[in-house]
Automatic annotation (TrEMBL):
GO terms for molecular function: transferase activity. This is Rhodanese-related sulfurtransferase. The lineage of its organism: Bacteria, Pseudomonadati, Bacteroidota, Flavobacteriia, Flavobacteriales. Residues 15-102 form the Rhodanese domain. Gene3D superfamilies: Rhodanese-like domain (3.40.250.10). The keyword Cytoplasm does not apply. InterPro entries: GlpE_sulfurtransferase, Rhodanese-like_dom, Rhodanese-like_dom_sf. Keywords: Transferase. Coiled coil: none annotated. It comes from Zeaxanthinibacter enoshimensis. It comes from the Bacteria. The keyword Transferase applies.
Length: 103
């Protein structure tokens, strides 16, 4: 797992042809806005979250965010334990996101 500032996260993401943006917030949080082209899997769903992660392509690079950076950090650590090679945590999360937002 690697913690990245927003600038580092965006810069790395733009250069990455193998990137997937993963939003681990709740559905209610997602309804308030999200980073475009992200997929949402709620980390609070416990085993269902793990089951959904298991379906993902482990050869991809995952750019993970939540509201503040805490849950996404946990998700990145979990993903590394599950065999994902590249998981990048957005420090500050969506609260501090200054990029494009979809609704």
């Amino acid at each position: 797992m690697v913690d990245l500032t927003q600038d580092e996260w965006v810069s790395k993401l733009q250069e990455d042809d193998n990137a997937v943006i993963l939003d681990v917030r709740t559905e209610e949080e997602v309804e308030e806005g999200y980073i475009p082209n992200s997929i949402n899997i709620d980390i609070y769903k416990g085993q269902e979250f793990i089951n959904e992660l298991d379906k993902l392509d482990k050869s991809k690079n995952y750019y993970v965010y939540c509201r503040s950076g805490n849950r996404s950090g946990q998700a990145c650590a979990l993903m590394n334990n599950m065999g994902f090679q590249e998981a990048y945590n957005l420090l500050g999360g969506f609260n501090e996101w200054e990029g494009e937002v979809a609704e």
